[in-house]
Amino acid sequence: MYVAHLSLHDFRSYEQLDLALEPGGNVFVGPNGQGKTNLVEAIDYLSTLGSHRVASDAPLVRAGANRAVIRADVHRDGRSALLEVEIVPGGSNRARVNKSPLPRARELVGLLRTVVFSPEDLALIKGDPSERRRFLDTLLVTRTPRLAGVRADYDRVLKQRNSLLKTAGAGHRRGEGVGSLATLEVWDEHLAQAGAALLAGRLELVEALRPYVGSGYGKIAAANGVRVEVGMTYKSSFELPSGAPDREVLAAALLAAITARRGDELERGVSLVGPHRDDLVLSIGDLPARGYASHGESWSLALALRIAAYDLLRSDGDDPILILDDVFAELDKDRRDHLADLVGGAEQFLVTAPVPQDVPVVLEGTRYDVAEGVVTRV
């Protein structure tokens, strides 16, 4: 899989851009703030309908414009498809495949697969649980696009339920709100069903991902003469039933946990149980990585997570596009060279760097200089 052509209209700093890309390596070089990351961010957005840099769509639209368009010619298994998304902050995004509109923009997810390495990856180890949940859900939807609808349903139900909890909680404290409590029970059921579907997907993903994370960390750490076992455990906000992640069993357990926390939720006006409160616990040796891992160990584990995602997607039969966004400047020489060796065989990889010397020799490919929003093929 590779992108042969990228077109941008009012995306970030680009009013208009048309750029031919090549299979193999594409290296974008230029000082910070010139638009390198905007290019690779656009390709990743087509894959996930989200940015690895910001949480909302508004910053993706060029100042003064009211929408942005990303369009890419994607080649896969000897066939090509024109993928397009129109980003409309505050409204509904629109997507097209070969100029034919899709009923929902999220149906675009999975047609293009990417794995991004970036300086922000250190937050996967040192950051809040939301960073690790986001990592899991992005990979989950990339592997199984239909789960984009499940995640959207869960987010919608959670928002509605939290709003109702605030109302019902205020009434409950005044000795009122019986009707609100009855309505809350309906939303409890919705949250349990949607949450169980999302949770089952995450649990299956963690099991599939675990051996790849261990292998990836072993290869990276070995470059520094270190051999340590890493662990990865899914930490739920309630006690998970034993056995395989059956959705109906999970839904029943989640509903029971919600019921048990009803008083606390009404008091605080927020949902305290469900996948939105879960975490992925990573460990190095016998200690949790968060709070105990050194800077170098944290980077090795963050890289191992991304490499694991790449290897897992490849095991599904696809060769995703690798995006290495200014990551080499963050790594010491051993980790830099070892990462390059591990990913250099990708069908297409996109690298951004402030200077050519930051890019390992094995990743040198077609080079583009980026200066003041102008992209020039060297």
Structure commentary:
With 378 residues, the chain is an alpha/beta fold. A hairpin with a 6-residue loop joins strand 5 and strand 6. Helices cover 42% and strands 23% of the residues. The protein has helices at residues 36-48, 123-126, 129-143, 147-173, 178-222, 247-260, 262-268, 295-315, 333-343; strands at 2-11, 14-20, 24-29, 68-76, 79-87, 94-97, 100-101, 114-117, 230-235, 279-284, 287-288, 321-325, 348-353, 366-371, 374-377. The chain has a domain at 1-113 and 319-378: 3-Layer(aba) Sandwich (Rossmann fold), CATH 3.40.50.
For the record, the CATH architecture of the domain at 1-113 and 319-378 stands as 3-Layer(aba) Sandwich
Span of the ends, CA to CA: 24 Å
Arithmetic mean pLDDT = 90
Structural class: alpha/beta
Instruction: Estimate the strand proportion.
Output: 15-25%
The CATH topology of the domain at 1-113 and 319-378: Rossmann fold
Radius of gyration: 22 Å
Largest sheet: 6 strands, antiparallel
Write down the secondary-structure element order: EEEHEEEEEHHHHEHHEEHEHEEE
* Uncertain regions spanning at least 5 consecutive residues: none
Query: What percent of the residues sit in helical stretches (DSSP H or I)?
Result: 40-55%
CATH level-1 class of the domain at 1-113 and 319-378: Alpha Beta
- In the CATH hierarchy, what is the superfamily of the domain at 1-113 and 319-378? P-loop containing nucleotide triphosphate hydrolases
Number of helices: 9
How many beta-strand elements? Answer: 15
Shape: globular
Strand line-up in the sheet with most strands: 2-1-4-5-6-7
Quaternary state of this entry equals single chain
